[in-house]
Amino acid sequence: xxxxxxxxxxxxxxxxxxxxxxxxxxxxxxxxxxxxxxxxxxxxxxxxxxxxxxxxxxxxxxxxxxxxxxxxxxxxxxxxxxxxxxxxxxxxxxxxxxxxxxxxxxxxxxxxxxxxxxxxxxxxxxxxxxxxxxxxxxxxxxxxxxxxxxxxxxxxxxxxxxxxxxxxxxxxxxxxxxxxxxxxxxxxxxxxxxxxxxxxxxxxxxxxxxxxxxxxxxxxxxxxxxxxxxxxxxxxxxxxxxxxxxxxxxxxxxxxxxxxxxxxxxxxxxxxxxxxxxxxxxxxxxxxxxxxxxxxxxxxxxxxxxxxxxxxxxxxxxxxxxxxxxxxxxxxxxxxxxxxxxxxxxxxxxx
Length: 351
Prior knowledge:
Layout: H1 2-34, H2 41-61, H3 72-77, H4 79-98, H5 101-108, H6 111-123, H7 130-147, H8 155-181, H9 186-207, H10 210-213, H11 223-249, H12 252-274, H13 281-316, H14 326-340
């Protein structure tokens, strides 16, 4: 029981950290795009990946982290995740350029539904619980309601926004699949992804001329802009790790719901700081519905956790010299079946 509570506390802590880093990165990137007209998005992505790769390699060589050395087998294990991670980051940056920050958040709030559907098809773990399903549908309806009041963005921004949601959902599901198919933890996953993606991003940064023209950018004379740029790179590294860690410990759908919870603060900051969209009644109603869906999801996951604890107690505290009742046997068989399908599997923590 104590181990279960410790695991759940770790899962909640990682989810909160992911929400903080993700929301902060969205706001800072929007500052770079809107206030400073910093359009070198490929370079930001390249520096984020290379910083993570160099830092993790240095820590590995110093013996401070226990990850295997990079090789062909490690790269092959995370090849699909690497491709989707790179594509998802690119689409996110481009959709931030074409959409207002609140409207970008509206698109991201459709992520739980897409993640759940792709997860059912790829992970083949059966249908979600009624509570989770209701929370996902309510959240998606809230996103549609909030988005109905704003159709003023760049058409290409809407295209990249839809693609970003699809690729992001596939990325999260593939992370969860990799956590089940490999013995590597989230730190090893980030190490492999960063090293694999960095050479490609370096080539893309030169092909897009970002790495060439960025030196002539006049904003480098502004210390505030430089600080925001450095913060984006560092927070991007932290966000990538918490994305992997949250998905490993919790699930792909839970990670997508973290984005829904942190969207309220992001929307508020976006409306106050950028003034690129007015808070209409439809938009506010959509935010309220989204909040309701998030609350329902938290309650549903809490009930699932309590049920898991009950099943573990039945499994570990068997009455000696007595046969189990039919109800206990049914519960234990159901619990073991869920464990085999990794519905309620414990976290894979990497030292």
